Amino acid sequence: MRHDHQEPRLPSARGPLSAAVMEYLRGTGPLPGDEEIAGAAAYGDDVQLALYLCYELHYRGFAGVPEDREWDPDLLRTRAALEDRFLTALRADTPVHDGVEEALAEILVEPVDGTGVTHYLRDKGELWQLREYAAQRSLYHLKEADPHAWVLPRLWGRAKAAMAAVEFDEFGGGRADRVHARLFADLMTDLGLDTTYGHYLDGACAEALTTVNLMSLFGLHRSLRGALVGHFAAVEVTSSPGSRRLAEAMRRTGAGPAAEHFYDEHVEADAVHEQVVRHDVIGGLLEEEPWLACDIAFGIDATGYVEDRLAERLLTGWRAGKSSMRTPLPSEKSHIS
Amino acid sequence: MPNSPSDAPRRITVQRRGPLLVEGPVEVELEDGTTVSSDRFRVALCTCRRSRRYPWCDTSHRDRAQPSDE
């Protein structure tokens, strides 16, 4: 017996590809053709949503969509065509460092006068912008560390043990109330946002979907295990200083204790995770499979590339005083005192 | 002095730059006599003294650079 009300609703289509995938999921129409996919913009709303729909079947699925669609061969073929479009564009557009050390070295240096999203939010972010940031990021944080668990069976030895240890920490060290996705839901409550999984899918911009699709792409393919590990390293290395700035933003705007706690916890946790991922996950993987160095560097750099695109989208909107979302958030629910 | 022969020594990883990595859980006694604890599987202890969450590392030891010209 299914409990459809617990699964996210299908979102609105953003073009012919996502419309067709949704029709197929509902059992009411055919999948899009390969030529249609090949001609679509790789990072555009339509491709990214279509891909997101295919991937979500591996996480929580959608209400009204049979669970066995996850392994529907025709849908997997469409997914592969969408992935090919996405991955080909990423490989072409991402400036990739020559090696893992070089890729890490760049993100291990803190800019003195940074101009990123977290710098902006720390210095002048307003509450409505913090709410937008959290809503856009909720697609990622509510599945925080989930796609990285898929890499575990593909690692062994030092890399596996270290990856499992970090994942254990991400999942709350065995305590449900400390699972990082749970802490993020608590942050959303502080900000007056709806914590329902997938609630902001319709509102999230293509650039936000891209950051989630990137980790799903890397996580679902054993052939991209190096890139997945690189992605994880990039997230952990950049998280600690960024989280400090966001914790300051939450404090300055009086967002609430859970909102502060989420980022405070990440300052400390990710300072550890960064060390473990660099030394033991990457170090261990390179010992076993040194030929994956290029893929690890690609994973690190591709993560930076899609994050930069999201930052550009957010900041362009905010600097003009405009919403960064496809559909602006409704004004805050009753909570702020 | 191990309490039992099966007690494994606690591993601490040192590096020229960056925090000490200690297997958790740990309790740290600070100069003022107070103690703080962490039950994380591994703990990063600040050695540069710049951390704002001392004794825990907050990555303040990292090099800082002017933004590259864009």
From TrEMBL, chain A:
This is Iron-containing redox enzyme family protein. It comes from the Bacteria. It comes from Streptomyces spinoverrucosus. It holds the Pfam family Haem_oxygenas_2.
TrEMBL record, chain B:
The keyword Metal-binding applies. Keywords: 2Fe-2S, Iron, Iron-sulfur, Metal-binding. GO terms for cellular component: cytoplasm. One of its GO terms (molecular function) is metal ion binding. Signal peptide: none annotated. InterPro entries: FeS-contain_CDGSH-typ (IPR018967), MitoNEET_CISD (IPR042216). Residues 23-67 form the Iron-binding zinc finger CDGSH type domain. The keyword Iron-sulfur applies. It comes from the Bacteria. This is Iron-binding zinc finger CDGSH type domain-containing protein. It comes from Streptomyces spinoverrucosus.
